[in-house]
Amino acid sequence: MKGGPKQPIYIDDDDEDESMSGLFTRPRQTPGKDNVKIIKDESDEEKKNFNTKRLRPQNDQAFTVNQFCETIVVHPDPNEESDSEGEDDTYSVHERDSDYHDSDDSDDSDDSDDSEAQGKKAKSKQGACDASALKKSIRKCEILRNDLFYRQQKGEKLTTQEVQKMETLDAKIAKSKKALAFIMKNSREPPARTAREYWQRHLKRKQEKEDRKRKRAGDDTTANKLQKTAMQSGPFGGVGNPGFSTAAALFTSNRAQEDDDNNSEPANKIQATTHEAQMRQIIAGIPEGNDTRHTKTQERDLIKAKKCFGYKKIKAIDGKWKLKGMETPLHSQQLVGATWMVMREAMELHPAGGILADEMGLGKTITALATMIGHPAEKEDREDGYGRATLVIADSPHSASRTWMDQIKMHTSKRFAKRCWIYSKELHKEPKWLSTKNVVVTHLNQLRAQFPSKSQYQLLKAKWAGDESGFQQALSKRLGPLFKVNWYRIVLDEAHGIKNHTSSGALAIWRLNAKYRWALTGTPLANRLEEFYPYLKFIGCDFATTMRRYKAQYIKSDQAAANFDQLVGLVMMRRLQAEKFLGRTMVPLPKSHRSDIWIPFSSWEKIHLEVVDGAYQEKLLNVQNENHETEEEQQEQDDPESEDVPDGESEADFEGDENEGSTALDAYRILSLRCMRILQLTSHPLNLESFYRNEDHQAYIGLTIKRLKSEIT
């Protein structure tokens, strides 16, 4: 060894599992005869002697910190995985116990062929190596410093060189820790494992950005408002869809395409199994002339949607997106819809839910299923007292079994579907058992059967007048099992079934307990703006707790139209069949061929038509000419309404209240009612019964009878 060249030898530190290069620290290999290698391992005594000799000053020469650090060479293990990969392995272990998706050892698609993504990944690994080297350097310096400090504390007098060495080590440690803190602060975070983790990070970044803006502007107010307002307009906090910005658009559904000549060409067939390749083909397939700002917004929404469900949760499959736990891949617009729903839940926006009002054919059911699988209940939800189950309320028993259970079995994994049940009173299951399922499907009639009737409800309210606590206890005793579960999520299908806010169905729906609430409907409004109130009450909007407040703010005030537009953009996503997503019509329909068939009214039908039409023409003229009362006078004339007690308001009461409020809205409502009455007449004259029963319409009854008699004679 004396004559041979010096080579770095490695000491294996069993306690710290680290490597340090130095002289004579690797097991020596001596070539022998017949190509036999004799390996001599160093004994513990030899290692001890080496450490003593190596770390002490030799020949009265000081051993500086820089010299020591230069002897340290960090060799990262080439097989060592990045932090993000290690976290994903941990999460995979956690997912083995999940009922939301089957075990799948296949590697889900990601941006593996994206050179930019690969560069970021390599940069992340380099940052991890730099941090690891700094940590080891700090640890070695601390060992040297602590050795000197220990000797000093024992009363041993240190030499001047040793004191300087100790000070130098302290400075080196402080400087290294500062550098390590900078690296850790600027290092790339590992990918979010769940949708909630992704959106909570997103919310945190937004709040930090707002805080920085406020500090620069010298504003001392808090950023709490950000979570409740600024981030809710539009799918992901951007500009809202123009398709649902007006009240008039909510009254129409399944209408014929306005311009058949603008039907987009069939989309190019996409063949891709990675995110990057699929996005490249989707963007390349956008037709010319569709490179608009709205299309750019949709593109950004899709890019965010494909990664916001968690690390490797979305797989690209030939133009569609398959969520882990789903059997059926989603269209791009469906993935964006599910992302909007998950975002509202995971970021804990107010209200905790919303209204999905896509037209028929856009896939509201599969979008809701993707939300259930993409954002399941977590440990913190159970600690808050909520179960893991989602309650789906269908509009009928047939819809519960044929629509929802069949769709669950078709679109979700077997592992998820086997824990989904149709509720039946014959099950005789406790509420705790129901809360452990993935999905419990019921229907509105079943819910009504477990809730007091309207008359019983009013009697209870009268009996316990002035004692709200006593009323709630008495009411709870009359509720069925479905009302005794703290559901994780409630999905109300065909939500227009509760458009009458005085119905027993609406009262029952409002009484259910859940963390998140969603209303699904393709026809949010049929006749009047008041029909929107039950949806708001169901999803928990605290700015529309009573019908009186709702009318005052969104129907009667001078800013009612603007207020309603803002409200709709806040809580609802509505997309029409004829709308385009990334330049392609969402539901391409065959070209329509229109033809008008005129059927003349009979003489008695014509009399009804003229009377009804004349009545609304007269109302419209009065609205346009009269001076409206002030807002304060209108509120004084309003009858007080209780928060949940049915106020007995009927369609006739609504018609008698037409001339209140802003001129523009009143005129619009009168015209809508006029069209509705004429449509009712064409179906059957008995549909006009509610019109003639209105106490303000007695004169029209006499006029109709008089004209019918004259027609007969």
Keywords for this structure?
713 residues; alpha/beta; 4 domains; 28 helices; elongated; disordered N terminus
Structure summarized in a few sentences:
With 713 residues, this protein is α/β, with parallel strands linked by helices.
Explained architecture:
- This is Helicase ATP-binding domain-containing protein.
- It contains 28 helices and 15 strands.
- The protein is an alpha/beta fold and 713 residues long.
- The N terminus is likely disordered.
- The protein is elongated and about 130 Å long.
- It folds into 4 domains: 1-12 and 22-50, no CATH class; 56-82 and 110-186, no CATH class; 226-254 and 269-449 and 485-585, Rossmann fold (3-Layer(aba) Sandwich); 603-712, no CATH class.
What CATH calls the topology of the largest domain is Rossmann fold
What low-confidence regions span 5 or more consecutive residues with pLDDT below 50? 1-40, 50-63, 68-97, 104-108, 112-117, 225-234, 237-245, 256-262, 627-632, 634-661
Tell me the number of helical segments per DSSP (H or I, 4 or more residues long). 28
Instruction: Please report which band the strand proportion falls in: under 5%, 5-15%, 15-25%, 25-35%, 35-45% or over 45%.
Output: 5-15%
Shape: elongated
CATH homologous superfamily (4th level) name of the largest domain: Tandem AAA-ATPase domain
Q: Report the average pLDDT across residues.
A: 76
Which CATH class of the largest domain applies here? Alpha Beta
What is the radius of gyration computed over CA atoms, rounded to a whole number of angstroms? 36 Å
Count of DSSP strands: 15
* Helix-residue proportion: 40-55%
**Biggest sheet, spatial arrangement of strands:** 9-10-8-11-12-7-13
Structural class: alpha/beta
Q: Which architecture name of the largest domain does CATH use?
A: 3-Layer(aba) Sandwich
Count the domains: 4
Biggest sheet, open or closed, and with what strands and sense?
7 strands, parallel
N-end to C-end Cα span: 135 Å
Biased composition (Polar residues): 58-69, 221-232
Region (Disordered): 1-133, 186-242, 626-659
Biased composition (Basic residues): 201-216
Keywords: ATP-binding, Helicase, Hydrolase, Nucleotide-binding
